[in-house]
Amino acid sequence: MSFVKPLNFPKVELKISKKEDVIFVWCIIRKKNLVLTPEEWVRQHTIHFLINELSIPKERIASEQTISVNNLTRRCDVVVIDKNGNASFIIECKAPEIEITENVFYQIAQYNRNLKAKYLMLTNGLKHVYCEINQSNGEINFLENLNEIEW
């Protein structure tokens, strides 16, 4: 578990278990144990950040939400649903060693064509990028932090 290292999120106690030689982490959204990969480590920290720091109710968070992009099935790492049942915030999680690049942004932008969320976040657990999307003109406004978002 060399990838299990501190991330740029507030400290959180994740429920870790081991069966045979496989390590699992409990997902409070999906309500099941998931194999603990580097990306899952980041995803679970992100979910706890949304709940504990931003006070987003668990019921408004989806993890690994399936969508169709160009007739292909894809999964969004984390989607926050607004009070009207629409996606308001999409988060793409990468393993800590994966850089947040233009290609990663392109991936989440493709997902957002379907979901039309107002806000996007890219994170590898160490670096976070936030932006607001103007759906009417496609303009992207990068944000310094999530304090600029009204939940």
Q: What report would you give on this structure?
A:
With about 150 residues, the chain is of the alpha+beta class. It has a single domain (about 15-150), classed as tt1808, chain A. The chain is built from 2 helices and 9 strands; from the N terminus they run βββαβββαβββ. The chain has a 6-stranded mixed β-sheet, sandwiched between helices. A hairpin with a 4-residue loop joins strand 7 and strand 8 (about 130-135). The protein is globular.
Topology record:
Blueprint: E1 16-19, E2 22-27, E3 32-35, H1 38-52, E4 61-69, E5 72-81, E6 87-93, H2 102-115, E7 119-123, E8 128-133, E9 140-143
Parallel strand pairs: 6-7
Antiparallel strand pairs: 1-2, 2-3, 4-5, 5-6, 7-8, 8-9
